[in-house]
Amino acid sequence: MDPLxxxxxxxxxxxxxxxxxxxxxxKAINLVGKTTIDGAWKRHIVDSAQVVPLIPADAKSLxxxxxxxxxxxLVIAAMRPDLQITMIESDARKAAFLGEAGRKMELEKxxxxxxxxxxxxxxxxxxxxxxxxxxxxxxxxxxSNRHRTDAATCxxxxxxxxxxxxxxxxxxxxxxxxxxxxxxxRDAVILRIGPYAAAADLRDRQPEGRRR
Length: 212
Known about the structure:
By secondary structure, the protein is an alpha/beta fold. It has one domain (9-210): Rossmann fold (3-Layer(aba) Sandwich). It is built from 7 helices and 9 strands. It has helices spanning 9-26, 40-49, 73-79, 92-105, 137-147, 162-169, 199-205; strands at 61-65, 84-88, 112-114, 126-132, 148-158, 173-174, 177-181, 189-193, 197-198. The strands form 2 sheets. It has a 7-stranded mixed β-sheet with strand order 3-2-1-4-5-8-7, with helices on both faces. It is globular and about 45 Å long.
């Protein structure tokens, strides 16, 4: 499946501008892995775009954690201009890139850029939370918990060790993930996680007779 199939020419041009800006800035600061810059369209644009069909149609807001080189945040902003997107990035140089790239892309609805650590940023109360190549799953769930609504959907890019991360995260969190095969890497998945709670909180809320 090509996640860019049917995308307008105008949107494709915005994504091309993102790649052009990335290539220019990459010479000065490390925004993405050095070995991935030559294949940036597939490795970063297509890889980010594949989460867009997984975003609920009625979602109004999205928080992208650790936006870095703009993936997937700026790609989603180009493809879902109806969303109010908040990009959280603590590195000031990367945030400067995100600001310039967003301006050059001439996005219909520019994302809000928050230059703070994820755990210190004002709660985003987002319907969707995304993150790519950022942290282990248990940490992502902790960070996302601050920035999501109770019914939010979390969409996380994960590599071949994703199952081990799920097993580890389940020691702290109660959740039921859907693992959707990546279109760019046969060993990778997009983890889709709906409402979740800290495991201890769940036990505390159970009636006495149901606790074990």
